[in-house]
Design a protein that fits this description.
It is built from 6 helices and 6 strands. By secondary structure, the protein is of the alpha/beta class. The chain has a domain of about 180 residues. Strands 1, 2, 3, 4, 5 and 6 form a 6-stranded mixed sheet that branches. It is elongated and about 140 Å long.
C-alpha cells in the first residue's frame, strides 16, 4: 500500500496554502480536459500535461475555490430546551454547510483528491459540539465524580479531530468542478462526509464499573473438620453386615448347616424311621418388623420356612417294605410300620 503523502497545509491548525499541490500522470484523462474547458471563461491551450497541470493548479488555488461537501441540519438548542410545539420546533434547527478547499490532487499513485475544512466550518462545528452535543451528553448520563473533567476532555478531543479531518475521495470528484474552482460532491459522496463527521462526535461514556470479586466457599474434603460435623448414615442399614440368602441357617435344631454347592448325601440318609424327629408345627407366618422403609441400606433378608418332609424323601433302607401276594390276594402290611401310626398323629 503506498504511503499517504499530504502537504503541510493539510496538517491540523495549518493555514491555507497559496498554491495547491497537483500531480498528474504522463497521460491526461479526457474527462479532465473537458472539465477544464467548461469552467474557463477564457480559452486556454490544453495540449500537454504541463498545460493541464498549470490550469488546474491556478483554478484550485483561487480564494473562491470553496467546495460544499455536505449540508447538516443541527439543533440550535439543547434537548431539554427544545420546544415541544411542532411549529416552534421547526425553527429550532440550523443548517450548516460543510465547506472545504482542495489541498492535494494525486493522479499518479492513489488517484485521489483531498479536502480540508474551512475555518468557518470548523468554528461552527466546534460551537455546536460544545453548546449542544456536550450539554445533551451530560444530561443523558448519570453523575460520577469526574464527569465534568471527562466532558471537557471529550470536547478537547473533538477540537483536535475536526482540525485534523481531511476527506479523501477519488479524483473523479473533480467532475463537479465549477467556475473559479468551486464545486460540489456528486454521486452521493456527501453521505460519506456526514457519516465521517458523525463518527467524530463521540458519546460521553461513564467509567466502567468495578468488578466485584465473588467469594466462593471451597469444597469440603473428607479430612476437613467441617466435614465431620454432620452424622453420616450407615450404608449397610444400621451397621449389619450383608448376608447371602443361601447361607442362612434354618430354624430347625436338627439341621446343622446347609450349602447350595454341597454334594454330600441328604441328612436323612442314615436315619431310621424310628430316629426321625419331625419339627414341631410352626405358627402362622407373619412378616418380620423392619425399618428398611425409613433408612437407606441393604434389603432385609428373612429366614425361609423349613419344608416338611415328604415320604419320597425317605430312603428305601429307612422304610422296610415287604409285600406278599398269594393266591388269596393276602398282603402283609406289617413292613410299612402301620402299627406305629400313633407316633405320626402329631404331624397331621
Amino acid at each position: 500500500m503506498p504511503v499517504q503523502l499530504l502537504p503541510a497545509s493539510a496538517a491540523a491548525f495549518a493555514p491555507r496554502a497559496s498554491s495547491v499541490n497537483v500531480v498528474l500522470g504522463s497521460k491526461v484523462e479526457l474527462w479532465l480536459t473537458q472539465t477544464l474547458k467548461r469552467i474557463n471563461r477564457v480559452k486556454r491551450p490544453l495540449n500537454s500535461v504541463p498545460q493541464h497541470q498549470r490550469c488546474l493548479t491556478e483554478t484550485l488555488s483561487s480564494s473562491n475555490a470553496i467546495w460544499t461537501l455536505a449540508s447538516l441540519m443541527l439543533p440550535k438548542l439543547p434537548e431539554a430546551d427544545t420546544p415541544t410545539d411542532p411549529d416552534e420546533a421547526m425553527f429550532s434547527h440550523q443548517l450548516i454547510h460543510v465547506e472545504a478547499y482542495i489541498v492535494h490532487v494525486d493522479m499518479v499513485l492513489r488517484n485521489e483528491v483531498a479536502y480540508k475544512l474551512t475555518k468557518d466550518t470548523i468554528e461552527a462545528l466546534v460551537e455546536y459540539h460544545k453548546e449542544i452535543h456536550c450539554v445533551d451528553a451530560k444530561a443523558n448520563t448519570h453523575d460520577w465524580p469526574d464527569k465534568d473533567q471527562q466532558c471537557k476532555k471529550l470536547h478537547e478531543d473533538f477540537v483536535q479531530a475536526i482540525n485534523k479531518f481531511v476527506y479523501r475521495t477519488h479524483v473523479s470528484a473533480l467532475e463537479g468542478l465549477e467556475e473559479e474552482g468551486a464545486g460540489e460532491l456528486l454521486c452521493g459522496k456527501s453521505d460519506e462526509v456526514k457519516i465521517q463527521l458523525g463518527n467524530l462526535m463521540k458519546p460521553l461514556l461513564p467509567p466502567p464499573s468495578r468488578a466485584v470479586d465473588i467469594v466462593r466457599q471451597p469444597p469440603l474434603l473428607p479430612s476437613s473438620p467441617a466435614a465431620n460435623m454432620w452424622p453420616q448414615s450407615s450404608v449397610n442399614g444400621g451397621g449389619l453386615p450383608a448376608v447371602d440368602a443361601w447361607r442362612i441357617l434354618p430354624s430347625s435344631p436338627s439341621v446343622t448347616s446347609t450349602s447350595a454347592d454341597s454334594n454330600t448325601s441328604p441328612i436323612w440318609a442314615n436315619m431310621g424311621m424310628s430316629e426321625c424327629q419331625l419339627p414341631s408345627p410352626t405358627h402362622a407366618y407373619s412378616p418380620p418388623h423392619t425399618t428398611a422403609g425409613f433408612y437407606f441400606g441393604s434389603p432385609q433378608v428373612t429366614a425361609p420356612m423349613p419344608p416338611l418332609p415328604l415320604p419320597s424323601m425317605f430312603a428305601p433302607a429307612q422304610c422296610g417294605v415287604s409285600v406278599g401276594i398269594g393266591m388269596g390276594m393276602g398282603m402283609n402290611m406289617g413292613g410299612f410300620g402301620w402299627d406305629r401310626y400313633n407316633d405320626f398323629a402329631a404331624i397331621i
